[in-house]
Specification:
15 strands; 13 helices; Glutaredoxin; 392 residues; alpha+beta; 4-stranded mixed beta sheet; 3 domains; Immunoglobulin-like
């Protein structure tokens, strides 16, 4: 009777008062002036602090893991510089945790500060969720580093040459190649471990990468990963939002919307997309520096692809006067449209316009073939498409 009463009381206690699993670590070489923070970073827009701890003299610390479902967590190490009155970040370890079992982590500062820390530190426990994530990390670490290095090299050279891509085109190609290889490796792993929480995490990130993957491929991945996944919360989210993903995938018929012409009249975008031709849509604004910088490149594409390419520029300026002034300055020899406040919402949702420039390539069958912010990618895509043969 007493045992039954105790069990009932445990069920009634709030989670914060029940026994929680913890992450215990010992990192040789860490000083007592280091503070460690555990954060749930699953939602990058709302990072949740879970626990923090001071490092002991022997480099040890312990953190509570108050989770009930798999969540991506960062273990961040901050150095407290009392002399300068500030703190600075030393390192971050990213782990997929679910709070179902204790976790232990051992190593030294050389491993902690190294580029492959999730791979070189000795991490154990954490149940199937963490085991699957570590398996994935060991598989992907080398390629992730190659992709990161290529991206860093391209970004560094960008600032050296103030965006003159002709100076570092080889680095751009290398970055894209390594990113594509990383994406391919992630796909292979996800398809081979579809029931793991790590697979749900990978696919969950792809959910937010609109117009990146073909519709049928996304449907296949969602069906496979949600069938029997350890991360039931994320799998359920993907399953619930399957229809939304299908409307933001490559290969779908282009969504229609209304816009305003230079003559001040409302027009359906679909009336400006001729059949049998490629159409390049450029969502831009007068105040957007990268948008204005891309226009000369779009002019070049238009000139070299004349005859088989239709171009339409669509301004998202808040004020019509700003659009008209910028449009005259740029003197673009193709159709110009502006989205007023009522029209903007429909177009922004249909094409997932979260940043600009947003370039959309529609193929001759009226389906979305490529979406990017980079006019060079559009140019490369069009150059790779064979010219039709005229037998007359």
């Amino acid at each position: 009777m007493i045992k039954q009463a105790f069990s009932l009381l445990a069920l009634l206690l709030p989670l914060s008062m029940q026994a929680q699993h913890k992450l215990s670590a010992q990192i040789a070489g860490l000083g007592t002036d280091v503070t460690v923070f555990l954060s749930n970073v699953d939602n990058p827009d709302k990072v949740e602090s879970l626990d923090s701890a001071k490092v002991a003299a022997d480099g040890s610390f312990s953190l509570r893991v108050p989770l009930k479902k798999p969540r991506m967590c960062n273990i961040t190490f901050w150095q407290n510089d009392k002399a300068k009155g500030r703190s600075y970040k030393l390192s971050t370890v990213s782990l997929l945790l679910d709070g179902t079992a204790d976790v232990t982590m051992k190593g030294d500062t050389t491993q902690l500060f190294g580029p492959e820390r999730e791979k070189t530190l000795t991490i154990s426990g954490g149940g199937e969720t963490l085991a699957g994530w570590l398996l994935y990390e060991h598989y992907i670490t080398d390629q992730q580093k190659r992709a990161d290095d290529a991206s860093y090299a391209e970004a560094s050279t960008y600032f050296e040459h103030l965006g003159d891509r002709s100076k570092y085109r080889d680095l751009i190609i290398a970055k894209d190649r390594e990113a594509a290889r990383l994406d391919s490796m992630q796909t292979v792993w996800m398809e081979g471990h579809a029931s793991s929480a790590a697979a749900a995490y990978i696919l969950g990130k792809r959910y937010y990468q609109s117009f990146t993957y073909p519709k049928d491929i996304m449907a296949k991945w969602i069906d496979e990963v949600t069938a029997d996944n350890a991360d039931t919360a994320r799998a359920s989210f993907l399953k619930r939002n399957r229809d939304i993903v299908m409307t933001l995938s490559l290969g779908i018929p282009f969504p229609d919307f209304s816009a305003t012409t230079k003559a001040g009249k409302a027009v359906k975008f679909s009336t400006l997309v001729p059949k049998g031709k490629y159409t390049l849509v450029d969502f831009w604004a007068s105040w957007c520096g990268p948008c204005r910088a891309a226009i000369p490149k779009v002019k070049k594409i238009y000139a070299t692809q004349k005859g088989r390419l239709n171009v339409v520029s669509v301004s998202v300026d808040q004020r019509e006067a700003d659009w008209r002034r910028a449009e005259k300055q740029e003197a673009m020899p193709w159709t110009q449209l502006w989205l007023n406040k009522a029209q903007l919402n429909r177009a922004a949702l249909a094409y997932d316009i979260q940043s600009i420039p947003r370039l959309v390539l529609i193929n001759p069958e009226g389906k979305i073939q490529l979406v990017s912010f980079d006019p060079d990618k559009m140019e490369a895509a069009l150059h790779s498409i064979p010219q039709p043969i005229n037998f007359e």
